[in-house]
Design a protein that fits this description.
Blueprint (H helix, E strand, L loop, with lengths): L3 E12 L2 E12 L3 E5 L6 H8 L7 E6 L2 E3 L4 H7 L1 E4 L11 H5 L14 H14 L15 H13 L5 E5 L7 H16 L3 E5 L3 H7 L2 E6 L2 E7 L5 H9 L17 E10 L3 E9 L3 E5 L6 H8 L7 E6 L2 E3 L4 H6 L2 E4 L3 H5 L6 H5 L16 H14 L16 H14 L4 E5 L7 H16 L3 E5 L3 H7 L2 E6 L2 E7 L4 H8 L2
Parallel strand pairs: 3-8, 3-9, 6-7, 7-8, 13-18, 13-19, 16-17, 17-18
Antiparallel strand pairs: 1-2, 1-4, 4-5, 9-10, 11-12, 11-14, 14-15, 19-20
Length: about 500
């Protein structure tokens, strides 16, 4: 008899009149790694939130470990043995690693004071179990995004879960950290822990999962054993059509130099950074997490101050002391952290689209030009195929892919001369990736200079005309469009 630890029977979910899940039936075996894949907005995260007690279903039932359950809160789910590691980190930056791992579960004495030595010891044991050497007394805010994700995983493991749901857990991890994550998954699996795994990286899904279920438009399209299917079949199930090439054709003509960075240095971050950007090309920044790519981009944008160096735009040196200076000069930066630094989650889609260029929509009397704002929002919603096409919807209610398209719209509306896009397709599905790639190439063809920072080597190779490889704060090589993953990794690890 097959031992199913989780049965989902006829689960549906409505938000007002919008049906986001429609009669989902799914069985997951104990101790397996079961991937749930689909385009943004397919219903994956909603389903996981129902399993994890964040949402309640409109119809259907869930049977967990042989018992029907109806969790009314995430804490109920955690207490029963279900933990979720969310795509967006839920850590408290100003608290220590140990406090984050055992949040609200710290050992205390009779007077209610935390037993710090015991807390640090317990956190150290959890971290040691997953093979990482992080000081439990370190403030989480002082860790890289990748190491913060490892702390999230440690937090879930500390709760003795029977099922752990991972929502895009490797989106911010370096190659070394991803391999460590794979080891953790295999270790949990060997101990009978069930893993539900959401990822848009299909190569990763095929490497780590036993089975995968495909959702599309809120419906379960089918479940396949990983060894008995292919990426092509899964993509077709996800999008309902043949996707074609993920990457548009590269430029056939590279024009004059439009942007240069000379002698850029910042102590302990990067040193002697120099590169040129030419009209008609996409320049890629490749390298491992922590190699200095993002720090250089933020310094060009004025978000961080370099100690030396200069920026030359269209043959003229420009002074950039703040992001406002950068935007005035036509240099825009699409951040890798859209939720914390790129978007206003409590504001509407319309408000976010104009956020970086709001001065263009203020009349002489200081009032907003609401008709123009509405027309501009509609233009970008249609142009980028943002769904739902409601400019009054709050950004926090959009899927990750549509949030990313909104961030792109925000900077396209600012009419950049140079656009630096940091991880532009992180956490988005394969269909949305293809759309974003197409729009970035269109931007280049219109005369805008584009720099792409990406941790996904296939994206860097498939999209970029040249590639600057970073390692330990230096550019170790600039490669042409026919570069291989092996070449990039050689320069990234010199």
């Amino acid at each position: 008899m097959i031992n199913y630890i989780l049965k989902i029977e006829g689960i549906s979910k409505r938000f007002f009149t919008n049906k986001v899940l429609d009669d989902i039936n799914l069985k997951i075996k104990k101790g397996e790694v079961h991937a749930v894949v689909g385009e943004n907005g397919a219903g994956k995260t909603t389903l996981m939130k129902i399993i994890g007690g964040i949402y309640t279903s409109s119809e259907g039932k869930i049977i967990f470990d042989g018992c029907k359950v109806n969790f009314s809160s995430p804490q109920e789910a955690i207490n029963s043995g279900i933990s979720i590691v969310h795509q967006e980190l839920s850590l408290v930056p100003k608290l220590k690693v140990a406090q984050n791992i055992f949040s609200h579960r710290e050992p205390v004495n009779r007077l209610g004071f935390i037993k710090w030595a015991e807390l640090r010891y317990k956190a150290k044991q959890i971290l040691k179990h997953i093979g990482v050497d992080i000081d439990p007394s370190t403030l989480v805010g002082d860790l890289s995004v990748g190491m913060q994700q490892i702390v999230e995983i440690a937090k879930a493991l500390s709760q003795n879960a029977k099922i752990i749901i991972f929502d895009e857990p490797t989106s911010a991890l370096s190659e070394k950290e991803v391999n460590l994550f794979y080891q953790v998954i295999n270790d949990l699996k060997s101990k009978g822990v069930t893993i539900i795994f959401i990822s848009h990286k299909l190569t990763e899904v095929f490497k780590i999962s036993d089975k995968m279920s495909v959702l599309r438009d809120g419906k379960l399209i089918g479940t396949r054993k990983t060894k008995e299917t292919s990426i092509e079949e899964i993509i077709k199930m996800m999008v309902g059509r043949e996707l074609g090439n993920l990457y548009p054709d590269k430029s056939s003509h590279i024009g004059e130099k439009i942007f240069s960075v000379k002698g850029f240095s910042r102590k302990a971050k990067f040193e002697g950074i120099e590169f040129d950007l030419y009209k008609g090309e996409i320049l890629g920044f490749a390298g491992l997490v922590g190699s200095g790519r993002t720090e250089v981009a933020r310094s060009i944008f004025g978000a961080e101050k370099p100690e030396s160096g200069e920026v030359i735009l269209e043959g003229k040196k420009v002074e950039i002391k703040s992001p406002r200076d950068a935007i005035k000069n036509g240099i825009c930066y699409l951040t890798e952290d859209r939720r914390n630094w790129g978007l206003f989650l409590e504001k509407t889609l319309r408000q976010n689209i104009i956020a970086a260029s709001i001065n263009k929509f203020v009349n002489k009397r200081g009032f907003l030009k609401n008709r123009e704002i509405k027309e501009k929002a509609k233009h970008f919603i249609d142009y980028l195929n943002i769904k739902p096409a409601d400019d009054k919807i709050l950004i926090l209610n959009l899927s990750g892919g549509n949030q990313q398209k909104t961030l792109l719209a925000q900077w396209l509306n600012a009419e950049p001369k140079i656009l630096i896009a940091d991880e532009p397709t992180r956490g988005v599905d394969v269909g949305a990736k293809a759309e974003i790639h197409k729009h970035l190439r269109k931007l280049v063809e219109s005369g805008v200079g584009v720099i792409i920072i990406s941790s996904e080597l296939p994206e860097i190779i498939g999209l970029c005309d040249r590639i600057a490889v970073f390692n330990e704060g230096k550019i170790t090589g600039i490669l042409e469009k026919d570069a291989t993953q092996e070449e990039i990794m050689k320069y990234a690890t010199l």
